[in-house]
Amino acid sequence: MSGERHLEISGLRKRFATADGALTVLDGIDLAIEPGSFICIVGGSGCGKSTLLRIIAGLERDYQGAVRLGGAPITGPGLDRGFVFQEPRLFPWLTVEGNVGFGLAGRSDREELVRQHIELVGLKGFERSFPNQLSGGMAQRAAIARALVGLPQVLLLDEPFGALDALTRIRMQQEVLRIWEAERTTVILVTHDIDEAVYLGDRVVVLSSRPGTVRRIVKVDLPRPRDRASLEFTRIRQTIHAEFFTREEPPAPAYAI
Amino acid sequence: MEVQEISELPAIPTAVSPAAWRIPDRALGWIVPLAGLLLWEILARTGVLPPNGMPAPSVIAGTIADLARTGELPQHVGITLWRIALGFTAGAAAGTVLGGLTGSVPLLRKLLDPFLQSLRNIPSMAWVPLFLLWLGIQETSKIGLIALGAFFPVYLNLLSGILNVDRKLVEVGEIYRLSGFQLIRRVILPAAFPAFVVGLRSGLGLAWMFVVAAEIMGASKGLGFLMVDGQQTGRPAVIMASVFLFAVLGKATDAAVQGVGRRWLKDGAGAA
Question: Does B170 touch chain A (CB under 8 A)?
Answer without folding.
Answer: no
